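Re: beginner question about structure tokens

> Can someone show what the tokenized structure looks like for a real chain? I only ever see the sequence side.

Sure, here's an example I had lying around. Input first:
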Amino acid sequence: MPRIAREKSSSGIYHIMVRGINQQDIFEDDEDRQRYIETLERFKKETNFEIYAYCLMNNHVHLLIREKEVEISKILKKIGTSYAYYFNWKYERNGHLFQDRYKSETVESNSYFCMVIRYIHQNPVKAGLSSMEDYKWSSYNSYIHRDRQTMIDAEFFLGMLSENKDLAIKRYIDYMNEPNNDKCLEIENKVKLTDEKARDIIKKIGNLKNISDIQRLDIEKRNSILKKAKEIEGMSVLQISRVTGINRTAISKA
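And the corresponding structure tokens:
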């Protein structure tokens, strides 16, 4: 069945979510997160898109982007290919890193544009990770500290709030902290396996009597089992690590 064509934005603005394949983490440490941001900056200069917000979570990224000369699909392909090459090289792994089809929605009104920025910046709060102010891997603070060099095109949003810079920043902070029920692109986990089910599947794949037996196998046999496990829908690298006792880096490399 052919895929449904993506809706084209009349404003050129899209809210994008890219995800790790099978819910896999796409950032193992802060070096990885910094590399992704540097990749965004590099291709922003190359393709001349505008970016209004971003937030890096463990296994997905939210972006609010306006395409200009280059279509959004080509922009994301450049970013994804470059980062995946780095990630695979660093962790000595092969294969896809990102879910094949990124999620996107068009942003056609000022009110929805504002809501998307708030939704993106509140991701760490809703996930119980951090306050917006303290989270290092989003664009929240780029709107407040305008004296710092940043890739965020903040003037577009701040100009909606006020022509006065200080008042616009105050209104921005107030708006970001308003209680809300914002819902934009949510991650839909259609299949989620219990740990017990995951153990049974892995034992069946490897013809193992006990799940701990996988730790005593030679690396080639172990990696063959792990690779097949990662292809099971609803089974994440984190869950495989949890039930087998094998660290996530080794599973990612398999």
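Each token stands for a local structural state, so reading them left to right follows the chain. Residues 195-253 form one domain.
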